[in-house]
Amino acid sequence: MENISTSLRRLHMSGMAMCWKTMTETHQADKLTFRDGLEILIQSEMDTRHHNKIARLIKNAGFRQGASLEELETSESRGISAGIISQLSTGEYINQGATVVISGPTGTGKSFLATALGESACRLGYRVKYYTLTRLLDEVRLARLEGKELKFFEKMEHLDLLIIDDFGMKKLEGQQQNDFEQIIDDRYHKKSLILSSQLAVSDWYSIFSNEMLAEACLDRIVHKAIRFTLKGDSMRKKY
User: Which helix (H) or strand (E) holds 192?
Assistant: First the structure.
């Protein structure tokens, strides 16, 4: 019996191995038909691989806090419609390459909402990456110094969902504007984007020093975006 469990692990079938061990310890293996036992083993392997995939997607996303839609406090007074959240939870907006814009004062839960949507996307099997704007620009700059900027932009383009948090915390200067514009342009109507900012959308032009690039970026971001404007007391203690 131990040889079967060992062989399954060597074949990288950890779900089957764990299930087989449980079946033998509880003497279920002797009571089941071959067909029934095999079905249980296969289902266990499928469940394990699905769980491992989700855990890997969440880890690779790089979220800086834990969050889920189940923990989210929805209310019209806070600017978070339960109906819209329910629609987004299906992931259809990702299939459509839609943009979600989250704005509001510090502490109203923008990062939590963005992360919760990202975590939900991971659980649906989508490739997600979370960045603060500063970290994203730093990684682009480092990639350019190493001569790997094209590979970096290709990696960004292939993400199903890109989350950029803290947009507007610093003004975009020089090459940063071009890099940001390329990332946005590569995703426009093709891959989904979540952008959060403590600045009102009407103030976003001040983030750019180049008016033409500002027009190009903001037109792509705001056009047909799903928008949340959060308000109310600080949620920092809750989240």
Answer: strand 192-197
What's the pTM value of the predicted model, to 2 decimals?
0.85
* CA–CA separation, 79 and 26 (whole Å): 52
Helix extents (H) in 26-167: 34-61, 82-88, 92-95, 110-123, 133-145, 149-157
Q: What is the pLDDT of residues 146-177, one digit of tens each?
A: 999 999 999 999 999 999 999 988 889 889 99
SS3 214: helix
Do the Cβ atoms of 120 and 135 come closer than 8 Å? no
**Spatial distance between the Cα atoms of 163 and 99, rounded to a whole number of angstroms:** 10
- Counted residue by residue, the chain has a size of 239
Cross-strand partners of 228: 102
Rounded alpha-carbon distances, angstroms, from residue 86 to 41, 58, 119, 192 = 34, 20, 14, 17
